[in-house]
């Protein structure tokens, strides 16, 4: 299962960390697993980690020789190999020439592809003209949409104004009816006042007649009393 020392050490590290985490969980939640409490599990885990770190202290670190750099750089296998600047310069010039040749080849192929697809300057000009026309059409559509929105808003305002006019007409009709009723009441009141004035005048006349009759009656009684005394 574990064929190397590093694999065994990794197993011990992970196992000890798991015990510490389990002990911390039991300690925080105050849960006991049989006779194992949080304190016991946490203590065992910490002691295990301490032992693992003590063992790790005696484990020497890996040296540079443990890495197989020769698999990446085969030149390292030859201890007497010296760098050759001339060879490096020649290689650089060859690489530059190959890159230039590749660039020219790609440019030629790209030009041929554009020619085969008939992608010339006139086509791009027509494309630009079409895009400009499309942009102009979009602007006109936007203007039309704006006008439509303004018209809709104007219609809404007209509808609101019509509703307000209807409300004002209804209020005016109510005012007319109220004024008519008040006028009728005023006319009736004036007529009643006139009738009351006529009745008052008639009452005054009757009262004056009654006063005259009483005066005449008093004179008659006075004459009778005078005659009886004599």
Automatic annotation (TrEMBL):
Task: Give the transmembrane region(s).
Answer: 7-28, 40-58
Keyword Acyltransferase present in the record's keywords: the answer is no
Q: InterPro entries under this entry? A: GldL-like_N, Motility-assoc_prot_GldL
Record keywords = Coiled coil, Membrane, Transmembrane, Transmembrane helix
Signal peptide range in chain numbering: none
In this chain the Gliding motility protein GldL-like N-terminal domain maps to 12-78
Q: Which residues form a coiled coil?
A: 193-220
Query: In the UniProt record, does the keyword Transmembrane helix occur?
Result: yes
Q: What is this protein called?
A: Gliding motility-associated protein GldL
Organism of origin is Chryseobacterium populi
